[in-house]
Write a structure and sequence with these properties.
alpha+beta, 5-stranded antiparallel beta sheet, about 150 residues, 3-stranded antiparallel beta sheet
């Protein structure tokens, strides 16, 4: 991949124009465009979470991981656990935060709370998170996590 900066004095102040050029649209090109759109959108610092009897204001930085439990989501935070009725893909869209990486078909983790990755059985990995919490990382999603970590 080649990238460079070109100064364009014809652009208005504060405007950034990004052009992605490739021979054809590939998954890598789409990933880059998706990343740029996430970068442009402001990630919320606080998410309202609707539980059975109240609405909690969750600080996104306190969210350690999200895991699917049947038709519900488990939100594991520094302060406790919430069980909400939502879909993982919808919740990921609401988060709109590149620090949250999908590590399996059913889980997202916050890389800011990742302490280590250990080899597990059959090519999978085990994410060791803050406070000795553990989460399985699927082989299929390991590449995305490694990319996000800069490996």
């Amino acid at each position: 991949m080649d990238y460079r900066f070109e100064e364009d004095r014809d652009l208005e102040a504060g405007v950034i124009d990004v052009l992605v050029r490739s021979q054809k649209m590939t998954p890598d090109v789409q990933s880059l465009i998706d990343y740029l759109s996430i970068y442009e959108a402001e990630a919320p610092a606080i998410l309202p979470i609707k539980t059975n009897d109240r609405i909690e204001m969750l600080k996104v930085e306190d969210l350690v991981f999200v895991d699917v439990d049947g038709n519900s989501l488990i939100l594991e935070t520094l302060k406790g656990r919430y069980l909400i009725n939502d879909r993982l893909y919808k919740f990921k869209q609401r988060l709109n935060n590149p620090d949250f990486v999908q590590v399996s078909k059913h889980a997202l983790l916050n890389i800011n709370h990742l302490e280590a990755l250990e080899a597990s059985f059959s090519g999978n990995m085990l994410a060791i998170l803050i406070d000795k919490r553990k989460l399985d990382v699927s082989r299929r999603y390991l590449v995305n996590l490694e990319k996000r970590l800069g490996l």
